[in-house]
Backbone:
């Protein structure tokens, strides 16, 4: 008796038209796609940082204040109005150039190389990790964020220094002058002040932001709640913005304190944490949370929507 095996129609179509397969929608090489993803991630996050810079600088000012948590003088509207009155409206765009440089390196790598590491780790795991699983996403995001945040520390430090308040007047004329001044303080070591807190913060923020966005998109699409498009991107990014704000604010407070500690009064991350708890209480780790959420929420929405649109423009699959 002869047995005839009939392949499903979908399988035949996928064999005849591999370019139309969801796994391979583009004729571009993998390396070209990874390069374009880096460019898309950098550009989209630069746009998001430009939009959210005023919120970012208010958040930094709040985190540097040491009065009782919840005091009205530390409310975001109070800080913003005081800056506008005493330093001018332009002060809300402090550290803008350094912020753009930071995004090219930091976000270009943490978001742009996320899928590169995701693909490579998936292949190396020989099926032990699934592409839909949260474990693979966390590992990939952690590696990408660690590299990006560590390399971007000098630009991050300059940005924070230029956004801080100096009663005696601004010590830096512009971004190049800030880099040169900090270099004179102690060379490369000064530019990498707080790199441990920066890296930890980058990992915490990126894993919570990128992984939650990726996971929420996946769940909403799988359950047929939303289809690929602006509505899905907005919903996933709203959720991701809240999650990463909650997880990253405490580390961000420590990072900002260390980066602005020019007189070396803090002896590293643990000493900074100890002094904040003793002098200000545990709630101090959530100073500036309103602005952190406002800034990160805005940044997350703008960056992911822009990233998805740029990918579409480049002919690359949605994230």
Residues:
């Amino acid at each position: 008796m002869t047995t005839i095996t009939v392949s499903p129609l979908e399988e035949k179509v996928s064999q005849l038209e591999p370019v139309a397969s969801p796994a391979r929608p583009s004729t571009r090489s993998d390396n070209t796609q990874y390069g374009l993803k880096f460019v898309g991630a950098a550009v989209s996050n630069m746009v998001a940082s430009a939009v959210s810079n005023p919120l970012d600088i208010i958040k930094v000012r709040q985190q540097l204040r040491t009065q009782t948590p919840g005091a009205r003088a530390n409310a975001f509207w109070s800080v913003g109005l005081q800056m506008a009155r005493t330093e001018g409206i332009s002060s809300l765009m402090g550290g803008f150039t350094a912020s753009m440089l930071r995004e090219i390196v930091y976000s270009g790598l943490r978001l742009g190389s996320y899928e590169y590491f995701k693909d490579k780790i998936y292949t190396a795991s020989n099926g032990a990790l699934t592409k839909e699983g949260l474990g693979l996403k966390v590992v990939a995001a952690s590696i990408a964020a660690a590299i990006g945040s560590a390399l971007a520390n000098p630009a991050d430090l300059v940005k924070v220094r230029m956004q801080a308040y100096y009663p005696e007047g601004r010590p830096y004329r512009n971004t190049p002058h800030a880099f040169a001044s900090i270099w004179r303080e102690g060379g490369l070591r000064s530019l990498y002040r707080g790199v441990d807190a920066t890296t930890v913060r980058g990992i915490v923020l990126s894993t919570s932001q990128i992984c939650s966005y990726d996971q929420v998109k996946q769940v909403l699409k799988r359950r047929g709640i939303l289809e690929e498009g602006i509505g899905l991107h907005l919903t996933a990014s709203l959720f991701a913005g809240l999650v990463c704000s909650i997880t990253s604010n405490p580390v961000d407070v420590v990072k900002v304190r260390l980066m602005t500690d020019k007189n070396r009064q803090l002896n590293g991350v643990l000493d900074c944490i100890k002094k904040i708890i003793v002098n200000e209480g545990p709630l101090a780790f959530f100073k500036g949370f309103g602005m952190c959420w406002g800034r990160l929420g805005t940044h997350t929405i703008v960056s992911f929507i822009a990233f998805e649109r740029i990918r579409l423009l480049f002919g690359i699959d949605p994230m």
Notes: The longest helix spans residues 30-64. The chain has 13 helices and no strands. The chain has one domain: 26-314.
